[in-house]
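User: structure tokens for this one?
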Amino acid sequence: MLKNPFKIKEEEIIMKKLLVLVAIMVTTFSLSACGKESGLTTEQNENKLVVGLIQVVENGAFTDMREGFIDYLRESGYSEENLEIYYKNAQGDISNLNSICQEMISKKVDLIATIGTPATQAIVNMESDIPVVFISVSNPVGAGIITDMSTPDKNATGTSNAIPIENIFNLADTLTPGCETYGIVYNTGEINSVTTVNQAKEYLEAKGLKYEEAVVSNSSEVQQAVQMLVGKVDAIFVPNDSVVQDAMELVAEVAKDAKVPVYGSSAVMVNSGAFATIAISDREIGAISAEMVVQYFSGTKIEDIKSVVLPATDTVINRTTAEVLGITLSEDIKNSGIFID
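Assistant:
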């Protein structure tokens, strides 16, 4: 009878875990005894764990998530001597993304970490026996990555940064009251964007507010899309969209020239010139996902590590953009908000 491939992989990883734990203990003992670092032996280097790390595009939010993820692992004792981070960026090319996923499988890494929805979908859909921990997927169930947040399946688990639509539009009503029509710019190729946009439209319709949509397929189309919106809308909302976020500085520039406030869905968007948002720290998202990796390498099965939705609690405002737009902030906002210059 054939052995379960998941079981075979699990047995291989358990052996590596034991060797790495021994290596960590030996290194720690050497440091305490000698007062300086001691390198691992050649045999130990051959048996170190390998985490593949995949993202589809480069942007500030993903960079923060990646750094938070790696820093947490290093701080948890998984140094470069006992754990390799095999990082790959698809540079926005889906065919390249699929090739990267295949490369990770061929390399037989011990675990794959993914940043964002497209990268996570790509590797999970390949149904390999390598466990996946995803970082910042806004709707894991809707994206088909797992079927239940509390009991993850498909050999995957991770963190979700659901966008607080109601809170963001309430913030907009507080900071720029009187907005009756919102512009929404997004890429329909990203399920996370579509999910967030649908929630935004439902909210606006329920409040009797109007919206204008501008759909893009790549970052080179974003500037023109925003230029088409600014003459028709009172404010612009940008969902958790990697394509639009990649061109966020252009979005902010066009909008500021037209005196139109932009409400983003991440602190990095605000850092790139958007006016405001309510968000969670991207570094924290990366760190919490890394904690799940530590749990797995410590012996917890992936299916026993619940996926979690991380609440957005920080009001983030770009002070320079506020000045350009001529917006006066209340004392309450000044005292409670996080400001970026």
